[in-house]
Design brief:
single chain; alpha/beta; Trna Endonuclease, Chain: A, domain 1; 5-stranded mixed sheet; 3 helices
């Protein structure tokens, strides 16, 4: 019985991970298509290797969504949930800015589940805009 429960937990965990990844990807792709086709914005999914390990503490791939419009650089993190991972996004931003020698004018986090502490840290300490609800969106 314990083995069956463990197998079910593993299976459901894998299904949840796939669902999360596919949901993030479909939302990212839809957002990019809307922005590019309707507003003439350039949307790039950047996936670069951090050989110094500045983002994750060890060498690893770093993925970011980048939006450029009229020279304005916007970096976006789309996640199924945000908690202390708000700091990871901040390190990704600094990594991108250093590597590309271009400072982001706006940092945006989009997630349906944002931990209240992460919202406070993101907004007040890190200067990010966090959106968990379409009604939160501002046009600034």
């Amino acid at each position: 019985m314990d083995e069956t429960v463990a197998r079910l937990e593993h299976t459901f965990g894998a299904m949840g991970a796939r669902w999360r990844i596919n949901t993030e990807r479909s939302f990212r792709d839809a957002l990019a298509a809307i922005l590019e086709k309707s507003f003439g914005v350039v949307v790039i999914n950047v996936n670069e290797f951090d050989d110094e390990g500045t983002v994750f503490g060890q060498p690893e791939q770093v993925e970011l969504d980048v939006v450029i419009h009229n020279g304005t650089l916007i970096l976006i993190e789309i996640k199924s949930s945000i908690n202390t991972s708000i700091y990871v996004f901040e390190r990704k931003v600094r990594f991108y800015e250093r590597r590309h020698e271009h400072k982001a004018q706006r940092l945006i986090v989009i997630s349906p589940m944002i931990n209240p502490r992460a919202r406070e840290i993101g907004n007040k300490q890190l200067g990010m805009d966090l959106y968990a609800n379409s009604m939160d969106v501002s046009t600034q």
